[in-house]
TrEMBL record:
GO terms for molecular function: acyltransferase activity; peptidoglycan L,D-transpeptidase activity. The lineage of its organism: Bacteria, Bacillati, Actinomycetota, Actinomycetes, Pseudonocardiales. One of its GO terms (biological process) is cell wall organization. Residues 234-355 form the L,D-TPase catalytic domain. GO terms for cellular component: extracellular region. Residues 1-24 form the signal peptide. This is Transpeptidase.
Amino acid sequence: MPRQTLLGALLLALVLLTACTSQTTGDAVAPQADIPPVAKITATPADAAEDVPVTEPVRIAVAEGALDSVELTNPDGKPVDGELAEDKASWSTTEVLGYGKEYTYTAAATGTDGKKVELTGSFTTVKPKSTPRATINPIDDAVVGVGMPISIKFPEGPVKDKAAVERALKVETSVPVEGSWGWLHDQQVDWRPKEYWPAHTEVKVTAKLYGLAYGGGAYGKSDLSTAFTIGRNQVVKVHTPDHRMDVYRDGKLHASYPASNGKDHDPNLNTPNGTMIVMAKEPVGNFSNPRYGYTDVEKKWAVRFSNHGEFIHENEENRANIGKRNTSHGCVNLFEADAKAYFDSAIIGDPVEVTGSKADMPTSSDVNDWLFSWAQWQSMSALR
């Protein structure tokens, strides 16, 4: 081949090789978009929520990651107590919130991809129209008789949602006791056993009322609780025609006293039939009653057993009739020594059972729980 022809072929081959070869080295990389973090934080209640219940826990949770920090603060900037779960996947409040307040939360977490995420927000709790107080009786550490009911009262206004309130009440006893709540009216609910309490029963009552909607915009002011003890079993029995008052302990006759009860011929002055309880004790009681023409009348060892006006007390001025005739205006009259002996033995909540009179005790008395049959009492529950 001629020299010129060989040189031309080599030049052509070099040109072709150059045209097929990249001018860069290494693999080509296409541009990629930013990948978002995998972790996601959620809050309950959500940001900007309103009318949040004060008793429901605030919960911060994270998916595909672990919480690094959570802070919930009240309007004063003070942190609200909370607890982080062991797996760091959630955090919940351990204290209740306040009414009508704005709370702010800040949470940070690290995702399984190593990226950090944050969440901030705020919410507002429910603002009641009113927060009426409630009371509970018996009080802590009281020792009461076997007829004593548990009473929760709402002196500042009626309860509309009685069922909600009743569901918030709990009675615990050291031995099994069958009982039920019953609404005497819309400002008082009582719990009484089907039969008298077993002697020496330990009783604990809790009323989770804070944050509870009573209806009509009213919410519970605070929780209530009490722990008390049932004492020995003592029951007073008065059969008015017998002119005696008998005291039973554990079902056995313990003492028997001559008595003069309410006038038999006038139902308005009878000692009315029914089961009542000892409500109060006074060493000296005032029994003035201008309606019947006597004032400044004081008697010793007065034991009240109704708000209808009935007491057990001494009446030495009526000595001639005690044990023989019923001449009082409704009270049980005893000799002074007997009245003192009974006074010393009585405790609040002891049952007083009266039979044999023409009149029955009206259910208008403040403490009338035992004037209802068990079936009637059960029907007074808002949950029946």
